Automatic annotation (TrEMBL):
Keyword Iron included in the entry's annotation: yes
Cross-referenced PANTHER family: 2-OXOADIPATE DIOXYGENASE_DECARBOXYLASE, PTHR39479
Entries under InterPro entries matching the protein: HGLS, YdcJ_bac-like
Top class in the EC scheme: oxidoreductase
CDD domains: VOC_YdcJ_like (cd16348)
Name of the protein: 2-oxoadipate dioxygenase/decarboxylase
Length: 463
């Protein structure tokens, strides 16, 4: 790891660098464990290059984050593990954003996304991890519930050395040396590593799997193996076609908004299905198979406002009502979603980052105090803010398509039916879960304030 930026940060390492080094190491590890992931990353690179070539551009024209951008997912077993992982991620500059209740698709899990939230951290490396934890109270069979709790109570995902380093980082990060930071990465990787040796006998595995395949996946292994790592692409439809052409077991449907939009919003995702992997079970040493790990790819668009999200959810619900005919139904429903940046902005559907266009800043006085007028006069320019989060309905589709024995069209609902357990998860984490809308709102507001400041205006009104 290289040394930190001078001056602005008192630590010998910085959380953003630590996160970048970590995701790089994680990606190398996963590429080795799941060669198809490497193949998918290669497909993404080829597709992106050809998209850029058509525009007369190269990867160097993209923001630096694009080439390193990944998200991953882990499923944890206990509240203790969840609390510990939130400490580890905080050291890497990743904080809980958004609450995801997977009970809505019949999974005994809930979770959050750990991710950077500041403009600068996102610019450097926006790595995010969709992190869920088992809710034993939702396990129907009391025998399975007790077995799961008992097995998990004996598991320790965090090595003693990692715990020491985390304590040290939290008390006084300034005392961590370069060697300590490197060691922290090595120890942290162990949590995410795959083990083909189960900690339980085959019969136990089968009984947990019968309750729910996720329960077996979470409980029966010594680590919280990362179950996918997702690169971002510029053209997910092309990647999907290429996956099929190269014989990868691609999921049938791309989740999220329909194809063909000029202005991409939120997130579109597809995956290749989980691999069947050899596992040796404890006791008898018999081997069997387990399916859990897969590959996924995503295309990210603009972050939408609360109003924009409500519209998205309403149109998606309309499409779901006609699910037998998915593609045309989705396309039809989304005709109602505006597809021009100006319109999206004027209707308050998308968040934007504003900045002063250098050369015209001082020319016109008095300046208008209305953002649309400033934009029109060319004094200010803007770009949509990238959506950094997940979509519960899409996540449910990704989850479902990777479960053995389902065809990927599990019964998904848009709203949770049970009572929300957000407060419970906040208690587990011991810290607030930020609302993603608040984070985007704050980013937009900071940029508006900066513009006002630079132009010497007291306030600027948005459309
Ligand atoms: C997580 C699935 C959700 C996404 O991209 O929506 C997800 C899991 O299978 O554990 O990663
Ligand atoms: Ni994912």
């Amino acid at each position: 790891m290289t040394s930190n930026k001078q001056g602005s940060n008192p630590l010998p390492w910085d959380a953003d660098q630590l996160r970048s080094v970590f995701v790089h190491a994680l990606s190398d590890m996963y590429r080795e464990e799941v060669p198809l992931y490497g193949k998918l990353v290669d497909i993404v690179r080829t597709v992106d290059n050809s998209v850029l070539e058509k525009k007369g551009q190269s990867v160097d024209d993209l923001p630096i984050r694009h080439q390193v951008e990944r998200h991953g997912a882990i499923r944890l077993g206990t509240t203790h593990e969840m609390r510990q992982i939130s400490r580890l991620f905080a050291i890497m500059g990743m904080h809980p954003v958004g609450y995801y209740d997977l009970e809505m698709v019949g999974f005994p899990l809930h979770g959050t996304a750990f991710r950077p939230t500041s403009e600068e951290s996102l610019r450097q490396n926006p790595f995010r991890v969709f992190t869920t934890v088992l809710r034993p109270d939702l396990i129907v069979s009391s025998t399975v519930r007790e077995t799961a709790i008992e097995i998990l109570s004996r598991r320790e995902l965090f090595s003693p050395r990692l715990c020491e380093l985390m304590d040290q980082a939290e008390q006084d990060a300034g005392t961590l040396t370069q060697k300590d930071a490197d060691e922290l990465i090595v120890e942290a990787l162990k949590i995410f590593k795959w083990h083909s040796r189960s900690t339980v006998p085959l019969e136990t595995y089968l009984s947990l799997k019968q309750e729910h395949p996720m329960v077996a996946d979470i409980v029966c292994f010594p680590s919280a193996h990362i179950n996918h790592l997702t690169p971002r692409t510029l053209d997910i439809d092309a990647v999907q076609l290429e996956m099929i052409r190269q014989g990868l077991p691609a999921k049938e449907v791309i989740e999220g908004p329909p194809p063909g939009r000029k202005c991409e919003i939120l997130l579109r995702q597809t995956s290749f299905k989980a691999l069947e992997e050899q596992v040796v079970f404890s006791g008898s040493g018999v081997s069997g198979t387990h399916t859990a790990r897969f590959g996924e790819v995503e295309q990210r668009g603009a972050a939408v406002t609360r109003k924009g999200r409500d519209l998205y959810d309403r149109l998606l619900a309309a499409a779901v009502a006609n699910e037998d005919n998915w593609d045309p139904s989705l396309a039809h429903a989304f005709q109602e979603y505006p597809d021009g940046w100006t319109e999206l902005r004027k209707q308050g559907l998308v968040y934007f980052r504003y900045r002063v266009s250098q050369d015209v800043a001082s020319r016109r006085k008095p300046l208008p105090t209305d953002m649309e007028a400033l934009l029109q006069a060319g004094i200010v320019e803007c770009e949509p803010i990238t959506y950094e989060d997940f979509l519960p309905f899409s996540a449910a589709g990704i989850f479902a398509s990777n479960l053995a024995g389902t065809n990927g069209t599990a019964d998904r609902k848009l709203q949770a039916t049970g009572c929300s357990s957000r407060a419970e998860l906040v208690g587990v984490l011991g810290r607030e879960i930020l609302s993603e809308i608040d984070v985007y709102e704050a980013l937009q507001k900071a940029s508006v304030d900066e513009v006002a400041n630079a132009l010497g205006l007291e306030a600027i009104t948005l459309a």
